[in-house]
Amino acid sequence: MAIKTYKPTSNARRNMTTQDTAMVTAKKPIRSLLRVKKSQAGRNNMGRITTRHRGGGVKKFYRLVNFKLDPGTVAKVEAIEYDPNRSARIARIKDQHGLYHYIIAGSNIAVGQTIQSGADAPIEHHNRMPLKSIPAGSFVYNIELQEGRGGQIVRSAGAKAQLVAKEGDYAQLRLPSGEIRKVRVECMASIGSVGNEQHQNIKLGSAGRRRKMGWRPSVHGKAMNPADHPMGGGEGKTGPGRNPKTPWGKPAIGYKTRRRQSTTKYIVRSRHEAKRK
């Protein structure tokens, strides 16, 4: 998929690029699969800001995406649609019972293609089956971490994981970050990779375009006053001798933030080890 550029009518337009929507075949989504998405502006149920620099943005509806097709499903792709809530495209499919679903659109998915789910499904792109039925070395996406819960990882545009090996009750997957992780062989995954691979090469070009996406401006800590940030104040700017800190005084670089230590046993090779080699 190509990247579209603009005529340089201004400084913002000069560096702005956008997605090529030639793959999108339908403009209007199915109303029954839409839900109102209320903007929280980074606030919790108490009204306190828990995620900074969020707010505003264009109003949008949430698409109910089915991340776990039931085994035995045989569906036909009817349309490829744009989803404002994620980087990947979504595909509208109609199963053998006449029900509509939205799924993550894989790379090179086409209208009219048949998608099947289950252990007996043929080994073809975009079909969904357990990891034990997928040959080693294959690329997969929309992978379950718990059987029957639905795909939780490898769902963004252009993402794919490789099935490295299968040993006993577990399969080893090389994730996009380089991490090698164990997953139960009963967990489902889709064969192939997620579409819209050029998403990472898009340049926003202007601040206003980012504001429409729901992001608000941020200010460097060293530009603040000492009462507002640990790195603020002083006759000049904070020099390189001081370690970067968050507004709450914790280290901003090198500080371990992993909380779920119970899942460490499933990690065969850390993503940090992969980066060092």
In words, what does this structure look like?
The chain has helices at 11-14, 207-212, 271-276; strands at 3-5, 17-19, 34-36, 61-63, 74-81, 90-95, 100-104, 114-116, 128-130, 139-141, 143-144, 151-153, 161-167, 170-174, 180-184, 188-191, 267-269. It has 277 residues and is mainly beta. It has a domain at 3-45 and 56-200: Roll (SH3 type barrels), CATH 2.30.30.30. The strands form five sheets. It has a seven-stranded antiparallel β-sheet. A four-stranded antiparallel β-sheet has the order 7-6-5-8, with no helix packed on it. A two-stranded antiparallel ribbon has the order 1-2. A hairpin with a 6-residue loop joins strand 11 (143-144) and strand 12. The longest helix has 6 residues, at 207-212. It is globular. 23% of the residues are buried.
Segments where pLDDT lies below 50 for 5+ residues? Answer: none
**Radius of gyration, in angstroms, nearest whole number:** 22 Å
Kindly report how far apart the N and C termini lie: 31 Å
Cross-sheet strand order for the largest sheet: 9-16-10-13-14-15-17
CATH class of the domain at 3-45 and 56-200: Mainly Beta
Please state the structural category.
mainly beta
Sheet with the most strands? 7 strands, antiparallel
- How confident overall, as mean pLDDT? 90
Oligomer category: single chain
Individual helix count:
3
CATH names the topology of the domain at 3-45 and 56-200 as SH3 type barrels
The proportion of residues in beta strands is 15-25%
Order of helices and strands: EHEEEEEEEEEEEEEEEHEH
Number of strands: 17
General shape: globular
The residue fraction in helices comes out at under 10%
CATH architecture of the domain at 3-45 and 56-200: Roll
